[in-house]
Sequence to fold (452 residues):
Amino acid sequence: MSANDRANFGSKLGVILASAGSAVGLGNIWRFPSELGSNGGAAFLLVYLLCIMFLGLPVMVSEFLIGRRSQANTATAYQKLAPGSKWHYVGLMGVFSAFLILSYYVVVAGWTLEYTVASVTNSFTDGTDYTKFFGDFVSNPWKSSLYVVLFMLLTHVVIVRGVTDGIERFSKVMMPLLLFIICILVICAFSMPGASEGLNFLLKPDFSKVTTKVVLSAMGQAFFSMSLGMGCLCTYASYFGRDTNLLRTAGSVAAIDTMVAVMAGIIIFPAVYSVPGLSVDAGPSLVFVTLPNVFNIAFHNAPVLGYVFSVMFYVLLVLAALTSTISLHEVVTAYISERFKLARKTGAYVVTISCTVLGILCSLSFGVLKGFTLFDMGLFDLFDFVSAKFLMPLSGMLIAIFTGWYLERKIVFDEVTNYGSIRMPLFKLYIFLLKYFAPIAIMSIFINELVK
Ligand code: TRP
Fold:
């Protein structure tokens, strides 16, 4: 395929919404509140915002410029920009980690679908024991596998339609809907009895809580949430037009991503504080065990409201997860079909089938395959560790080094300024962050994760 007949996002809005769709995901609505809850609230938020600005943004712009410059999938991108070097392993590593992340991300995505069904069929207002409900669901091999298959199918349907008719068109409908739902939920949350306590927890920092662990968790979370280090944004940027302003796009995507994460906090913490005895420090089960208890107890006297709130919340999670699984799928599909000269559809089938199989195996690690461990981890935890905790920071760091040290400065300048047509007063700061700050900072997340 020549660069000219390569697919392209049709509009600037499409570019922003598709990239924001990749960034906004379970990371924002499930992982961010649980990290914030376990890491002392507002202090974590503050550090997180700094990480987005000084670490996430420069790396995001770098991924954008690598993708747009090369007009190719992630692995080929490095081959084009650094022919004959070993840099294409960074791209390959991205494809590989996207593949692994998709395989376990889809398990949690499947849970959100199950919870949507459960909330629609009214089971969050009937007094069930939700710890048991969750435990029973994740350990039921048939149910959890079924939802993995369903979620992969949903992702597949969008991917096979292509970049413009699938990803772009879908994001243009889903992202506004997602933003609409989240705004309604924020308004609801403000009217809950725990609103002021919840907002205090989110917005009043207690600086004594800023420990190294908090800083490093915030960095890792910023990376995951912005979809960095796995070639996602690099692949999407290969569909950007020549006139797309990379810095402005990265700014919008980061802003939407952060806004959604903060709004998820504004929804969840007031809700949790509205029920005495529930803790915000529930970790990953915050959304799947604590919140159903909130729906059940806090809305005891207004079950209809509880019903609407819970359905909207889980639909929101599904939408967020779906636009992210699509972006992860696209990384691998673009690579397979371009590298092995397959039709896009065939490439997509290969990815869907193999990720479904791996996804089912991951989901079974909460039940029948619990005893099957490698390095003391079940398959789900192993995939999470290898991809999100190991490969993602590693390739993020290499991306920063690649653009900061290896790539000719003129190429970087031309891409960031669209051949000098956009003024970029902060160019020197950008290069400084890439050359020195990002590699050192990411190296410390990395070491921290490894010695944990
Ligand atoms: N950013 C998404 C989220 O917050 C997840 C995601 C999609 C991702 N693509 C990625 C994470 C690439 C890391 C790398 O849920």
Remarks:
- Residues 22-23, 25-28, 101, 224-225, 227, 229-230, 232, 324, 327-328, 392 surround tryptophan (CB under 6 Å).
- The chain has 18 helices and no strands.
